[in-house]
Amino acid sequence: MVFFEKEIIKLQIKTLVYRGYGLGFKQGLAIFVEYSVPGDIVDVEIITKKKGYLRARIKRFHKRSSQRIKPKCKLFGRCGGCDWQFMPYETQLLYKQEIITDFMNKLKGFQYNININKIVKADNTFFYRNKVILPVGKDDNEISIGFYKKGTHKIIPQVKCYLQPDIVNSIIQDIRIYCQIANISIYNENNRKGNLRYIGFRLGMKLNEIVLFLVTTLKKLPQITHLYELLIQKYPSIVGIVQNINTQEGNYVLGKSEKIHFGRSYIYEQIGNKKFKIDYKSFFQINIEQTEKLYNIVANILHKEHSKLVIDAYCGTGSIGMYCADIVDQIIGIENNPQSIIDGNENLYLNNVHNYRFILGKIKDQIGTVLSDKSVDTIIFDPPRIGIDKEVIHYVAQRKIKNIIYISCDPATQIRDLNILLKFGYKIENVYPIDMFPQTYHI
Ligand SMILES: C[S@@+](CC[C@H](N)C(=O)[O-])C[C@H]1O[C@@H](n2cnc3c(N)ncnc32)[C@H](O)[C@@H]1O
């Protein structure tokens, strides 16, 4: 049977899949439905037809799933920040566990049992984000600051976001009101005119520090100094206010030049007995409590395997390796963001770590040199969502490294890379799912 766009179909949602969609079937065809829950019986409208599947949205409920709860946030379903606030946290975890298991079952040559551990749950399932970047726009002369609506560039103005600390919510409202009254020029991405584009926060959650950054198209941001003074007075945990200038069009948030208007451009964060300096431009894990649990798992593996010479690939500020520095003989971190390495070197000093060395560069250009030392026994990979560079995974696969710890925030690309390792004779011993992003489908 052929289905058409805008056609309405009655459907029962059977399960949830990665990227947050509910999945139902009609005449054997998979239909992915946004904001649906297994057990929902719904009329859906087809929004896109793809090869072998359809995407749809709910038009009418025949029966609401018993797994549904009332989301805390009034914007849920409109704002693209959360996907699963309409399910109890324990249910979210069950689906994440199932999704990971399904991914692992996709591994080719899966002839032995992989030990998939129970997902590590979060203790705090709201207000956990330590980094927030929000676009600023204007709608009918009203300034709006918030996440984009899912799949669009329409800003859904925030009032209180349940993923970010309340202090961020409060500062955002102060900035919005001030900019409205002071008539601050706001960037319009359609005609590429205007000045203020994004506002962002980097928080040291354990040490209670905030760096606020404003991204603008121009060097000048008239009439804003008074706002900075007000914020510094009202919020003593603001340790820095930075203006980042981004003249480029498109989706790159940060530009190359910056001006520090107050304090510093970095915060300090504490994980275990280590302290980390993190610039607002450097990568750092978003959920600090879960990060500590992740690092402990890595440390336990290194300890159990008696790792001595470790490569920390895609290392950012080197925090994973530094956290484990007491356990191993030597660590080499490879990272292509110079700011992360500047922070990383200061962190070595701050934590009195002497057995960690950074290399600045792309992994594919550096891996050959570091692996020329045959005593490398362990590689920790923690790549961005796109996964490990193709050349790198093939190169490492052939080198038969004793231990590989692959940390990933996208199981789809991780499976792609693991399949290559399996092809070259590696075995997967353990999978440790960790819920880094409660209320969202991300893992
Ligand atoms: C997911 S982050 C992990 C950072 C770090 N392991 C941590 O836990 O904080 C990925 C890091 O890889 C870096 N990166 C991305 N592509 C790279 C490449 N081709 N070569 C080297 N580093 C890269 C990014 O700048 C980022 O710091």
Overall mean pLDDT? 95
**What is the name of the CATH architecture of the largest domain?**
3-Layer(aba) Sandwich
The top level CATH class name of the largest domain: Alpha Beta
Content-based structural category: alpha/beta
Amount of helix = 10-25%
The unreliable regions are none
Q: How is the biggest beta sheet arranged?
A: 6 strands, mixed
Outline type: globular
Distance between the termini: 36 Å
What is the rounded Rg?
A: 23 Å
- Which sequence of SSEs, written as H and E, runs from N to C? EEEEEEHEEEHEEHEEEEHEHEHEHEHEHE
What binds here, in terms of ligands, is: S-adenosylmethionine
Number of helices: 9
Can you tell me the CATH topology of the largest domain?
Answer: Rossmann fold
**How many strands appear in the DSSP assignment?**
21
